[in-house]
Design goal:
Six copies of one chain form a homohexamer. Chain A is of the alpha/beta class and about 220 residues long. In chain A, about 45% of the residues lie in helices and about 15% in strands. Chain A is built from nine helices and seven strands, in the order E-H-E-H-H-H-E-H-E-E-H-H-H-E-H-E. In chain A, helix 1 packs parallel to helix 9 and helix 2 runs antiparallel to helix 3. The longest helix of chain A is centred in the first third of the chain and has 23 residues.
C-alpha cells in the first residue's frame, strides 16, 4: 500500500523526542510490512519564529512563507536523520525532485514546496501524483469535530465526514486554526481524485499502523458519495 | 518597474506568429525602458491535447496537470526563442529555479509550476516574491465583465473592481471559464499583498506598454479598499 | 536483458490512445519478465507545430531544434504518466541525468537531448552507455526497404541488412524521411559497438516482445560482418 | 573590493530584528559603494535546538552536523529576505552552487556546506576562491583577547595578531568557545593565502563599513609576517 | 560581438603555461572591448591517457568518450581558474546548463557535452544557439590545407574555403586527424546557419583578436555561396 | 555491511590496468556478498599535473585545490566505467549529491568534494553519514609505521594504533607525506564516531575482502580506548 502521512509541525519541539522516535519506529514497521511511505512535515514553532522575525523586518508575505517552508524542511530532515538508510537522504524541494526521490523506492520525507500553499496541500498533491491508497493527516487533535472541542464541551467528533460536510464545518468558522488542517485546495484535490483520507492524532502514532491495517473508528475518515 | 505578465495559452497556435512577434517586441521595448519583466505562459491547446489523451488512458488528475504544465513550459520556451539574449535561456521548473533565474537580471519566462495550480496563481506568487510593481493578466477578453460578453449584449466591463466584487462576479457563475483567469488562490495572494493588477486583452499588446506607462481606463484594474 | 526502444513521435496524437496503452502494457510485461527498459520518444506533430511557428518568427535552427526536443520530452512524459510507479518519474534532459535515472532501476523514458541530434541518435548513445543487449527502432513502417514502399509496389523489405548496405540504401536517396529513422551518427554508434538493432513497426507492439524473446524475421535486423 | 562577512548564528533570534535590519542596511550601502559581498551565517540557537533533539534520538554526529548546517541556511535565507533584489535569491548548498551564484554579480548569502566543518571555515574557503580582499568575522565579542574577557578583568584585546600567536592563544585553552570563531582549518586557509582578516563585534555593524573603508584599530586584525 | 572559440586540447600540457596565460589575456582584452565570449576546450593528452586505460579495461566506446569529455572539462576548469571573476565559475555539462551560464553575462568555458560528439561540434552548436557572430577554431595548424603540410612540402593553405570544398578535402583522406578539426555534424551546423568560421593556429593567440577586429588573410575562413 | 574504501590517487596511471581491474572485481564480489560499498578516489598524478600548471599561472590555492578535486573525480569516473550497472553512474559533487546517490542502493564512487579538504576526510565524513561499519584506507604502503619505512630499515609497522598514538606519529614529522593518508580532520571524525578503520596496501586488493570478512593482522587497524 502507498501511504502519505502529513505530520503537524507542532511535534518538532524539545521534549517530544520520544514521540519523534515512535514516528520513526512506526515508519520502519510499515516499510517492513511492505508499504511505501511518503511523509510531509509541517513548519511548527520554528516556522513561526522566523516568520515573526521576518514580519517585523517588513519582509513580504511570500518571503515569510518561504521561511516557513524552509523550517518545515528542517523538520523533514530531522525525520530523515532518524530513519537513516530507510529514507531518501535528501529533502525534495519541488514536485520534480519529489518524483525523482520516490523513484528510488525509499521513504521520502519533505516539507512545504511553495509560498501560498499549506503542507496539507503538499500532502494531497503528492498523494494524487503517486496514486496513494491512503492519506493520513496526523495532527494535534484526534479527528474533526463539529465545534472546537477545546471550547465546547458538547463538541461531537465525526467518525466519517463527506467533503461537503467538511466544507460546511470549516465555513461555519467555529474552528479557527482548522485552516491549517485542511484548506480549500487540499479538499479539492482529495475530492477530485477520491483519495482515502484519515484525520488522526499524532500523539498516538500506533493508530497510523492500525488505519493502514484497516481498523475502523479511529479519528475521522473523509468519505465520498 | 518590476512587471509580471501572464499570457493566456490560447495564443500559442499557428496563425498567431504576428501576435507572438509583437509580444516579443513589447518585451524588448519594456526592457529598453529599464523595466524588469517576468512572463508566465498558459498551456493552451497543446495542454488540452495531451490532457485529453492522458484522460482517455486513465491517467490520474495530478498527472494530467503535469502534462498541462509541461505544455505551458513549451509555450514559455517559444517566447524565449523569440527574445534571445534578452531572456534567461531556460524555463524555471520550481520557485527555487525561478529565483535563481531572476537573479541574473534577464527576462524570465516560465509556465506552470505544480499540479493543482493555475498559471495565474503562478504569476501572482511570482509577483509577490519579487515585490512586483504590476501584474498584468493578458487574456482573450479585454477585461472583467459583470456577465459573459459573448452571451449577453448588455454585459458591462468594469474599469475598476475590488477583490470582493470580483469574488461575487466569479461566484455568480455566469462566466464559465473565468476560473482560468483568476482562481481563489491567485485572488488571495493579490489581496494579501495588494498587488497592482490589470486584466487586459492580449490581442492588443501595445496596451501592456500603455499600462506600464501609467495609462488609465484600459482593461480592468483590480483595486483595494 | 537491457533493451532500448525508440518510439516514433508520430504516434503521440489523439486517436492513438489504444496504441499508447498497448505500448504501456508491453513495457509492463517486459519489466515483469525481468528486463530493463529505456524508451526514447520522438517529437512528432507537436514538434513540427512549434518548429513551424518558430521558423515563421525567424528563430535560429538551433532553437527550432530546442523546441522540437522539448516536444519530444512532452511525449516522454505522456508515456511516464501511463507507466506510473514502473517508470522513473522525470524526463532526463542530459546524459548525466539519464545515467542517474537509470541507476534507480526503473524504466527510464526520455526525448531528445541536444539540438542538431535526432532521437534515434539519442537511443543509440543511450544503448551504448548502458551496454544494451538490444536496440529496437519502432517506427511507422515495418522495416527497411530498398525503395520507398509507399511509392514503389516492387519495394523489397530487408530481413537483415549490414551497416554498409544501409548506408547505400540511405545514400541512394529514394527514401526521403529515412533520415529520421537512422542518421549518420546513429549508424556510426551502432557500428562501432556492434549493437544488436531491429527496425519494426510500432503499430504492432506485440512484435517488440517477440523480438526480445528471440523471434526471427520480424521487421529488419541490422547485422555486422 | 570583494568582502566576505561571517555573521555569528547568535544574532538570529527574536529581539534582534533591529540588528538584522542594520546588517541589511550595511550590506546595501557596501553594494552602493561598488563592493561585492558574500555573507556566511552561523547556525545559532536553531542549530542547537535541532542538534539537541537529534542527539537524544541517537542520531550520528554527522547528521547532527547536517541539521546544524540546515539551520544556518535558514538564517541565510532570513538575510536574503531582507536584501531582496540585491541578493542572489537562493542559498548555495555546495561550492559549485556558490560559484554559480557568485557569477550573477549579486550578494550571495549562505550557511554551512558540509558536516565536520565550521561556518568560519566556509567563509575562509569562499574568500580564497573568489580572491576576496577582506574577510570579516563578525561575532559576539569585539575582537580576540589573550584571555576570556567575560572571566578575566585583565584580559587584553589584540589590535593585531599573527596566525602563530593566534594558534597559541587558542591552544592555551583559556578561551573555550573560540573554536567556533577560528578553527584549525580556517586558520590554515587564511594563512596559506594571506587573506586580510578582521574579527569584529556584530553588535556595531557600522564597524564593518569602517573596516572596508580602511579604518584602523577596530576589533582585531590578523596579520602575516 | 558574440564569439565562440574552440581551443584544441593539445595545449593543456606542462610547458604551455605561457600560451595558456596568453589565451587568458586575449580573453580579458576581448571582454574589455565589449565582446561576449564562450570557450570550448578539447580533451588532449589527459583524455587520451584515460581513454587508453579504459580501453585496456574493456570499457565500452561510449564510456571511453565519457572519460574523454570529463578530461576536456578539466581543461575548461583550468581556463576558468585563469580568468577568475571574468568567467562563469562552473563548467556547464549540458546545453541547459550552458544556456543558464550564458545568461549571467560572463565568459562561459566548457568541454564536451556528450559521448559520440566532438568538441568542435559542441562549439558549432553553442555558436548556433547564441547566434554567435564568429566561430574560431584554434588548433595546432595555421589553417586548412589541401594536403597534410607535415607530409607534403607543396601543401597549399586555403585562405577561404567553402563547405563543399572542405568536405572534399576531408573525404580525400590525405589529412588524418582533421576529423578532430571539423567533423560531419559540425560542418552541417555551420552550413545550415551560415556561421562565420575561422580556422587559426592557437600558437599565435593574438590572431584571435585580429580576426575579431576584422583582419583578413589569417588562417582559413569558411565561406558560403 | 556498509564499507567505505578510499583508494589512493597513485594507482590511476597507465600500467596499473590490471590493478584497477582487480579493484573492480573485488567490488563486484563484495556487492554479491550483500555488502554496500562507497569508494573515494584520490587525485594522483593528474591532480599534480594540473595543480602544477595552475601554480605557474599564478592561480590561487583554492582553485589549485579545485583542479585537484576535478582530477580525483576523473579517477572516480574511471572506476564507474569499470563497474557498469553495479555503480551509480554519476560522480557526486557534494554531500547532498552523495546522499541522493547512496539512496539508489548502488555502489557510489566519488572524488574530492571541497577545496582545503583531503579525499581521506571525504571518506571519513561519508562513512560517518551512512553509519559505515568499516572504513578502509587503501594506500601505497601496507600500514602505518613508526618511521618512514622507505628511509629507516628498522621502521616498525603497527598492527593496531590508537588515535592518540597516531597523532604522535604524525606530529613527530618523520613521515612526510602521511598528511595525505590521515589529516587532522579525518582523525577527528574517525575518533568522534569511533569508525572502525583499517589502513592497507592497495597493491593487494584481495586484502580488502579479507578485512571485510573479519581477518586480523592485515595492515594497521585504528582502535579506540
Amino acid at each position: 500500500m502507498k501511504v502519505v502521512i502529513k505530520i503537524t509541525g507542532k511535534v518538532f519541539e524539545p521534549g517530544n523526542e520520544n514521540l519523534l522516535g515512535a514516528i520513526g519506529d512506526i515508519t520502519k514497521k510499515l516499510v517492513n510490512l511492505g508499504h511505501r511511505i511518503a511523509i510531509v512535515t509541517g513548519g511548527g514553532a520554528t516556522a513561526r519564529k522566523y516568520i515573526d522575525m521576518a514580519r517585523k523586518l517588513g519582509v513580504s508575505e511570500a518571503w515569510c512563507d518561504v521561511l516557513g517552508l524552509e523550517a518545515s524542511r528542517l523538520n523533514a530532515r530531522l525525520i530523515i536523520s532518524i530513519l537513516g538508510d530507510l529514507a531518501y537522504n535528501d529533502v525534495p524541494r519541488s514536485v520534480d525532485e519529489f518524483l525523482r526521490a520516490w523513484s528510488t523506492g525509499k521513504v521520502v520525507v519533505l516539507g512545504g514546496l511553495q509560498p501560498g500553499q499549506s503542507t496539507t496541500t503538499v500532502a494531497s498533491i503528492i498523494a494524487e501524483l503517486i496514486c496513494a491508497d491512503l492519506l493520513i493527516l496526523a495532527t494535534d487533535v484526534d479527528g474533526i469535530y463539529d465545534k472546537d472541542p477545546k471550547k465546547f464541551s458538547n463538541a461531537r467528533k465525526y467518525n466519517k465526514i463527506t467533503i461537503a460536510e467538511l466544507r460546511n464545518v470549516l465555513l461555519s468558522g467555529t474552528r479557527a486554526g482548522t485552516y491549517e488542517l485542511l484548506d480549500s485546495l487540499s479538499m479539492s484535490v482529495i475530492e477530485r481524485s477520491r483519495i482515502r483520507t484519515h484525520v488522526v492524532s499524532i500523539f498516538n502514532p500506533e493508530n497510523i499502523i492500525r488505519i493502514v491495517m484497516g481498523a475502523k473508528g479511529i479519528g475521522t475518515e473523509i468519505v465520498f458519495d
